[in-house]
Amino acid sequence: MGEGLAPCLAGSLIWRGEVYEDSSPRTPYSWVLNGNHPQLGFHAVGIIFFILGLGTLLPWNFFITAIPVPTLSAMGFWGSARDEFNFNNWLTLLSQLPLLLFTLLNSFLYQCIPDKVRVLGSMSGILLLFILTAVLVRVEMPPHSFFSVTISSVWFINSFCAILQGSLFGQLGTLPQGYSTLFLSGQGMAGTFAASAMLLSMASGADAQTSALSYFITPCVGTLMSIVCYLVLPRMAFFRHYLERSWQRDPRNELETKAGLLGPGTQGPGELWGPLLQGDTSLPPAWERVASKPLAMPRLIWLLALCIVMVFTITLSVFPAITATVTSTSESEFFTPVCCFLLFNMMDWLGRSVTSYCLWPEKRLWLLPLLVGLRFLFVPLLMLCQAEPRTRLPVLFHHDAWFILFMLPFSLSNGYFVSLTMCLAPKQVLPQESELAGAIMTFFLALGLSCGAGLSFLLKALL
Asked: How does it sit in the membrane (predicted)?
């Protein structure tokens, strides 16, 4: 969480293990090097962004986790009727299409509408729609009507989520890298939170309607907490400190967070930072080349964008459309909530959290597409588990242990590669371009989700 603070607190610039004292304390950047850093509140800001990350993915996770649970048949749809509508696939696809469209829109309009309006407006819309979903638990509706209302609600909720997620990723680009990891870790926890809420509602012994009502009230409380946290955020001195620096739109104000940008074979500290420390106000040559070509920024992060598309295309092609239909040899009603949703989300969260300590292969990004591409192997492996109904492919892995064995690395790698790509992207661009970089990466994230959701129809038909 405190990554990037060490150079400030030490009163000097650290480069590859060597210390360069500040020889120009009266420069406008002396607060970066002399320790005038608002340390107070950086833990609180981290907690707030963790909760905001949790809130961005609560809607999606609470809907998909509800798919296989028979106790929610009180809502008029979940049960055997869902197969008639191919509900798993449609829910996945119509969740991701608005995410893609509105993320693209947010990439163009992020400078026209203030962050506060976009974030609070989106969270308020999500809250109202979840309240509506909870109310519908008590309303008797035929399956066709319930399908239409639910899909419409999912469409609008994910439209708001797209704007919310893109806006928050943009703000994270102005903070040290550790906060992106915390935000993504909060997103990973959202699935575990939803799966735990479902298991509690199933184990409570309450009637079906009461269980469904309590289940869908939970994300309302979570979204309300996110709204409160976002309202508190501007009051934190640590957050205002970095926000004001981004407003200055001066790339030299990010010395401590950009010190690790250049790899072996690039300019050393003397060539890059020496003129600045001696009072020279010109931009370093490496930055001037990028600043002169704003349209070159997407090319700097195209590799990471490709990787995140691949990650989510693979994941959404089988999760939850295929994995939620895998049946247990023990015929336990808790098998899918535990072994599919809870296991996936816990390992996904763990994978996202690992990037707090390890960002491999940060220095060899050319390896990343190869590693991500290996995840395609999980698609046939999961399809050959005991997913029902099926008419074409045989079942090669009957035992529950095989499914669990495949889900562990599948979900862990998903969380790690998602967090890795989103954390590394802002480091490839100028500080004032970090919000746009966050919006672009969020668009490619949504593109991967949409591709995976569309591919799930084909894979489901191949079963």
From this structure: Multi-pass membrane protein
Q: 57-98 pLDDT, tens per residue?
A: 888 888 888 755 444 444 444 444 455 556 667 777 877 888
Q: Tell me how many degrees the CA angle 383-184-151 measures, rounded to the nearest 5.
A: 55
pTM for this entry: 0.71
Whether residue 36 is contained in a domain is answered as: no
Reduce the DSSP state of residue 126 to 3 states and report it: helix
Task: Report the DSSP beta bridge partners of residue 14.
Answer: 19
The token pair that represents 77 in the structure block: 């749809």
Whole-number pLDDT of residue 399: 92
Distance CA(95)–CA(88), nearest Å, equals: 11
For 204, list phi and psi in degrees, rounded to 5: -70, -25
Residue 453 within a domain: yes
Q: What angle do CA 369, 373, 375 make, to 5 degrees?
A: 135
Residue 52 CA to residue 5 CA, distance in Å, equals 23
Query: What does the radius of gyration of the chain's CA atoms come to, in whole angstroms?
Result: 23
Helix (H, G, I), strand (E, B) or coil at 411: helix
**Distance from C-alpha of 320 to C-alpha of 371, rounded to nearest angstrom:** 23
Boundaries of domain holding 195: 42-239+301-462
Our count of domains for the chain comes to 1
In a domain, 153, yes or no: yes
| Closest alpha carbon to 460 in 93, 195, 146, 96 | 93
Q: For residue 58, tell me if it sits in a domain.
A: yes
DSSP string, 135-173: HHTTS---HHHHHHHHHHHHHHHHHHHHHHHHHHHHHHT
Q: Which has the closest alpha carbon to 10: 46, 42, 39?
A: 39
Cα–Cα distance measured from residue 374 to residue 319, given in angstroms and rounded to the nearest whole number = 17
